[in-house]
Aromatic-L-amino-acid decarboxylase
Amino acid sequence: MNASEFRRRGKEMVDYVANYLEGIEGRQVYPDVEPGYLRPLIPAAAPQEPDTFEDIISDIEKIIMPGAASPACTELETVMMDWLGKMLELPEAFLAGKAGEGGGVIQGSASEATLMALLAARTKVIHRLQAESPDLTQAAIMEKLVAYSSDQAHSSVERAGLIGGVKLKAIPSDGNFAMRASALQEALEGDKAAGLIPFFVVATLGTTTCCSFDNLLEVGPICNKEDVWLHIDAAYAGSAFICPEFRPLLNGVEFADSFNFNPHKWLLVNFDCSAMWVKKRADLTGAFRLDPTYLKHSHQDSGFITDYRHWQIPLGRRFRSLKMWFVFRMYGVKGLQAYIRKHVQLSHEFESLVRQDPRFEICAEVTLGLVCFRLKGSNKVNEALLQRINSAKKIHLVPCHLRDKFVLRFAICSRTVESAHVQVAWEHIKEMAANVLQAERK
Amino acid sequence: MNASEFRRRGKEMVDYVANYLEGIEGRQVYPDVEPGYLRPLIPAAAPQEPDTFEDIISDIEKIIMPGAASPACTELETVMMDWLGKMLELPEAFLAGKAGEGGGVIQGSASEATLMALLAARTKVIHRLQAESPDLTQAAIMEKLVAYSSDQAHSSVERAGLIGGVKLKAIPSDGNFAMRASALQEALEGDKAAGLIPFFVVATLGTTTCCSFDNLLEVGPICNKEDVWLHIDAAYAGSAFICPEFRPLLNGVEFADSFNFNPHKWLLVNFDCSAMWVKKRADLTGAFRLDPTYLKHSHQDSGFITDYRHWQIPLGRRFRSLKMWFVFRMYGVKGLQAYIRKHVQLSHEFESLVRQDPRFEICAEVTLGLVCFRLKGSNKVNEALLQRINSAKKIHLVPCHLRDKFVLRFAICSRTVESAHVQVAWEHIKEMAANVLQAERK
């Protein structure tokens, strides 16, 4: 949507809200619909081609308004998470469908998703061990629990461990910054021999530092064999998996218990919108419901009636699935795929510019929209380059350390980025680099 | 703001956003401002009288835009939380000021605030006990930790205990549904004698069921004497404390370590916006920072540079303080006080209608905007009345249990509610009651 259409549609929306407020006394205070009303009114999958804005707005009045905030808010979320799961070709087990045991939920951030997964895994292992040995206290078990992630994982994983009161160990990544079977297996064996209880592994697809990918096809089977919960954090990279050519990066998701990525990062849905799926919703809700027997009676968790407050830390919820509905329909799957592909193509364009300049080096494989690069030479000269670039305030780069190397990160992430911006940025970087190198020679 | 002004202002805002997007390439990618730039540009307290919309918008361009999303998002939040703290006459220790040790943060919900307080208290007591006895493991301490709240507290308190992996005990409330000194003291003594470690008390001001108030002036000193963290959950009632006549309900807050209420409930700020203050920000951030020594050097937590990601579960943050800024200025403190007073007056109006009808009884003292009432008689007849009312869908009531009594709750909570609505609702309730009583007689 360009600025001129935004002006028009935005003003129509303002009128829609004002009309709603003016006519509110004429509306019923409580909806007439029955649980499960919404799914049959909506296609089973996102459209391939864009829908018109008129169609979407007319569906708001027809489909959402009769369901008011509740149950429409819950039901649209369940269906949108199924749409998105299908776009990613997630295994069927992760979808809510009409009576599935899995399903998706919108969290606020990947940090919350990781924490929820860790807490669910913690409860599950405690229940299992207490069922085997009824004398074991929760504290006695928790003291021995160990969670694992790669040494490249986001700091929020370590934080989830702190909050959950369990140990978290970093598995050394390989030369491509990926977690591999051998290192994980070694850690698990060592800890089990020491009497500890491995219970949770976070695999990262698209690390923050350099967009590396843990080896799911190796790590997944180990987790399944050891009966350890596998959570996948694909916060940034997940959006790319809607493109068939990037979907292989997600192979191995079938071994996972939970999977998360952030449509607010790279799928044009405004912050916040973090999409999380689980294979067994009862694992997630069981961690926080006070009476587990209550879980089992009634069709409360049948896919028709989903009580999302048991899936998350806060109780209150916003109607975030509306953002997904609008974006998926206004772009269509093809439009979203084109958006991802353009960004990846632009990052390769930047990569090839860097590779053509012998003063620079590429520091990690470029897979999606991130290019890690640096001047060949000391960390000091690269720190000076970064400082010069960020002080000029023409572009802004966030650095990282890869092992001992100080590295600059060029991230393609704006909705409106074009090749011309990449060219201008590269010319600017070269100019700053020339200045830095000249200053160094003096 | 009425619907007609909303139409005008809303469309101006749409144009503002479109102009911003169209002109974005002309803007600098990184702000020029220094940390702490914002506070001197904004008054030290909220205005008493409303500001004009023009003034507010012009301040957006002058004050917010030069600070971009960062640091403006953080700094406006700190200042707005100080404004709001001053409206409530919170003790100075809770304010950030220019170099305070305390301060406020916007959480998503009261559940999150309670959880953050519990986690901070848990870390603090573990550190204290490990400093005294370095051989104590975290698990050995956690096994003995006990948190307390009234038996009227919200279920989210019990949930925080589950997530935090600590015991939570319910203190029997008195005849007015309030937690009192004697019952709390008895529980503490019993648990200490049994070798347990009391570490956290949640006092509720304005319970969900009947808007009762725990006795802070009794409970507070006990918590301080026992070195137990006192958290106050005033999710609903907190907004009323901006009125001097209701401020005495908050007396005793000076004994608390943390305090929370939800401006999104009753202060005209849209969901979500849950305001939380702590006396010692280091207690909160210390629970989640991986290197506590890092806390102490640099002026990172001086009130100028506040890293809110250490204050909450998620890492990402929305610019929620803008909502507060707009609302506080558009209403002025007097406008907000008038709004609260009107609601309280309307609830008393409903209360007196109920009291005039001998078939009904009032079930709890009416202090703010909630009236708990029922037909004199069995729970069954009241359940039938509720069902009849909610099936008619003219009004909607949410019930509760007070001890063994099934009780109806009439909540004044709409922005546009007037005496006429209360009258219509009461006539409707009387009609439904007559039908129920007649049906019973048959």
Remarks:
- Chain B touches chain A through 57 residues (CB under 8 Å).
- DSSP finds 13 helices and eleven strands in chain B.
